[in-house]
Amino acid sequence: MKFYAVRRGRTIGIFENWDACRAQVHHFPGAEYKAFPNRKEAEAFLSSRSSSHPLKKKRPVAAKSSSNIEVWVDGSCLTQDDGSLRLGWGVLIKKNGVEIHRDKGNDIPQAALNHRNVAGEIFAILKAIKWCQSQGITEMTIYFDYQGLESWATGFWRAKLPFTQAYAQAVNESGITIHWVKVKAHSGNPENDLVDQLAKEGARGK
Which of 31, 105, 137, 191 is the 20 to 30 A CA-CA neighbour of 125? Predict the structure, then answer.
């Protein structure tokens, strides 16, 4: 088994198959990547400095992000009195720390109900990507609280179901360089709390 390390590409990270790696580097100017026989060597490649571009490491939430476009996402799953589920998503986008867009909704397909609130988080990212594409934005930092959102997109986790497979494909083909920052849910972070509220409102149809 090979491990493909992408040091410069649409998404930075380690991928376990060539197709996932290729999606990050194909037609990407100045892409830097390499295949390794084990994860340790791939990680060493990522942590080493590029000859022309220093590696952008993840920074704490309190620090300045690696992109001037910051995207906060969350999903919600509310159980109704009859036992049915209502899903929602919420998005907050900032540029240089100033809010430039927020949105919410519940237009999540029934087929995704079994993913519960994760489906909302996935939809939030897809909505954010679509909005950024419409604005000509080509790089952003996504703040999220469920690891699968990054791991499916980077190929670290295998997307086994049609919904997560479609999500990973959409991210990889978006043409946007994405930096991933995981945050702790319900930790008092104002942006994270806001998208949590937006997702709940979206689920309720407000």
Answer: 31
